[in-house]
Amino acid sequence: MIQQREQWGSNLGFILAAVGSAVGIGNIWRFPYIVGTNGGGAFLVTYFIVVFSFGLTFMLLELAVGRRYQSSILSAFEKIRKRFKWIGLLTVIVTFAILSYYLVILGWILSYLVISLLDIEGSSFESYVSTIYPVFSFVAVLLINYGIISLGVSRGIEKINKFGVLLLMAILIPLTAIAVSLEGSEKGLEFYLTPDFTTFFDPETWSISIGQAFFSLSVGMGVLLAYGSYLGRQQQRSLLGSSLVIIVADVAIAFTAGLMIFSFVFANDMAPDQGTSLIFRVMPAIFTEMQFGLLVGSMFFFLLLLAGLTSSISMFQMPVSVLEDTFNFTKRRATAMVAALLFLVGLPSALSYSSLNLVLQGSQPVLDVFDMLFGTYGVAISGTVLVIITAWFMNKKELLEQVNRGSRIRIPAWAIPIIKVLMPVLIIGAIVSQLLT
Ligand code: PHE
Prior knowledge:
The chain is mainly α. Helix content is 76%, strand content 1%. It has 18 helices and two strands. A two-stranded antiparallel ribbon has the order 1-2. β1 and β2 (364-365) form a beta hairpin. α7 runs antiparallel to α15. The longest helix is centred in the C-terminal third of the chain and has 35 residues, at 293-327. Bound molecules: phenylalanine.
């Protein structure tokens, strides 16, 4: 029996789901920290240029391919050319690997939420990660993901995003207002926003922008391709319009998160350049000191949990949709299989800071190695492959029809040859420049 393909309940539901996917941990800790260490206000200019040129093109391409072929990446590639089918596996592996450690970080966030809610004091990040608790919380967020995905695209993913994205904004805005009104927060805003234009001509700034744009917009990983495939084939809404809404929301939330984080950090005389561990080491210390810190801290970690959850389900849905579309799995089997594999693959990351410290390369924890290998290089490679297969081999007329349908602003045919060459060159340039520095 051929089953009807699942679909979004409404276009708004789709847009909110895509915003939920884009807005994640990458916006709340990664973006502010990257801006702060790469030229402040000047980096914002670079980033905006990259996001609205490169990011927008990529998003459009992925959504268009998904809507056109009504299937996830393997079957879509197969429909473009039979021999391309298995190349899609590369993207599946990259997304899966990223999700495996993304869930570990999300588990840490869940634990920190519980720690703030219960007002447990004195547990440093080091002592927390060296226990078995990161494994429990990893399993907990894995099960939450499993539950949502099992409910299906419109009853699970769409519902949770509709409520999640709005709630997220409802928490972020007052938290930012509290942070900005703290004494000493001006120094943070100065650090965050004072432009240092010397970084503007540094190729590294541009490659960092491209990397951040990929990660933050959820592009290049077949995730938006799958989301686009749940838009009906005949859907008439402009993908350009939807993409612009998604991107503006993503950038606005990331920018606001930066205002919040740097106000908190500088108002408390903390060091802003601690990278990954900033939210786990510095923020809890700030909350224990401040008035109503318990409440503010719980709101902060709940915000992160929500943002991360709506992103992780989008990554989870990707391999599930591949198993359903290409291997004819039922949703139940596909979801169970992905969850079981994620548990196995994510376990080393969950244990990577513990006393069982599983070391892969030198003294680097597995989680960091995975982030480097898949989160930085894997995404870039899978993104390049995606552009090459779609922009070079898809029927040009069909592609343009998809991209321009329902849109007042039309992408001209001459844009395709430019995209075809420019996108892969830019991405590969970014990887090489990062490898060289
Ligand atoms: N965009 C998400 C974030 O900013 C991460 C993500 C990447 C989600 C790729 C889905 C696909 O955290």
